[in-house]
Amino acid sequence: MRTFPDDVFLFRGLSPDERNRLLAEAPPPERFEKGEIIYSAERFRRAVGVVLRGEVLVIRDAAVLNRLGAGAVFGAAALYGRETRYVTEVRAATATELLFFDEALLNVWMRRDFRIAENYIGFLSDRIRFLNGRIAAFTAGDAEGRVLVYLRQHSDENGLVTLPHGMSELSRMLDIGRTSLYRSLDTLAADGKIRREGKSIYILKTIKENAL
C-alpha cells in the first residue's frame, strides 16, 4: 500500500504495526481527477475519506469552505445518521488519491479496539467546537468583529495566526469582500488589537487573554 499519512485521527495512539494491520483490511485506494465530484448532496457514500495524495475542496453554495491535503479526512457527517443528503460538495482540486473506510468497517474496528472509537468521538467533539466558533464569527456583528473572532480562535499560544489558504479563502469563509477584510485588518491594527508583520498576524496579548 502507498505510504499512509501519520496524523490521521482514527489511528492516534496506535503503533505503526497496529495501524498497518487495520489498513490491510481496508479497500484499495481510489483515484479522482481534477474537478471530479467525490461527494455531492445526492451522491455520497457512508464512509470516511482520507486524502492520501493531492487536494480536495469542500464547497457549499458555490463557496469554498476548506481545502484538504494529504492526511485530511472528510465524510464524518455521512456516518451514523439517517439523512439522505450530504451537507457539502467535495471535489478534487488536483489529481487525488483517496482511501475510504465505510461504516461497517469502522464498526468492526471500534468493537475490536476502543481507542478507535475514542479517537472518532474526540474528532466529533473538535468539529463541534470548530462549528461553534464559525457560528460565533458569523454572528459577531460588523466585519471587524467577525475577523477578530476568527483570529482569536485560530491563534496559537504566542498569539500568532497562520492563514493556510490566504486572504481570498478567508474572505469567503467569513462571507465578506476582500476589500472589507483588508480594511478590517487595518482597523484592528490601528486599534491596537492585532499586529501585522508581513504575512503574519498576531493577536496582542491583552486581547487574547480577554478572549479566554
Can you walk me through this structure?
- The protein is of the alpha+beta class.
- 39% of the residues lie in helices and 22% in strands.
- The chain is built from 7 helices and 11 strands.
- The protein has helices at residues 16-23, 103-112, 114-138, 143-153, 166-174, 178-190, 205-211; strands at residues 30-32, 37-39, 47-53, 56-60, 63-68, 73-74, 89-92, 96-102, 160-161, 194-197, 200-203.
- A 4-stranded antiparallel sheet has the order 1-8-3-6. A 4-stranded antiparallel sheet has the order 2-7-4-5. A 3-stranded antiparallel sheet has the order 9-11-10.
- A hairpin with a 2-residue loop joins strand 4 (56-60) and strand 5 (63-68).
- The protein is globular and about 55 Å long.
- 19% of the residues are buried.
- Residues 206-212 have low confidence and may be disordered.
Attribute tags:
alpha+beta; 7 helices; globular; disordered C terminus
Helix/strand layout:
Layout: H1 16-23, E1 30-32, E2 37-39, E3 47-53, E4 56-60, E5 63-68, E6 73-74, E7 89-92, E8 96-102, H2 103-112, H3 114-138, H4 143-153, E9 160-161, H5 166-174, H6 178-190, E10 194-197, E11 200-203, H7 205-211
Helix pairs in contact: 2-3, 3-4, 4-6
Please count the beta strands (DSSP E, at least 2 residues each). Answer: 11
Please trace the helix and strand order, writing H or E for each element. HEEEEEEEEHHHEHHEEH
Number of helices: 7
Beta fraction: 15-25%
Structural classification: alpha+beta
Could you name the ranges where pLDDT drops below 50 across 5 or more consecutive residues? 206-212
Mean pLDDT: 84
Morphology: globular
Distance N to C terminus: 44 Å
Gyration radius from CA atoms, angstroms? 19 Å
Largest sheet: 4 strands, antiparallel
Read across the widest sheet, the strand sequence of neighbours is 1-8-3-6
Percent of residues in helices: 25-40%
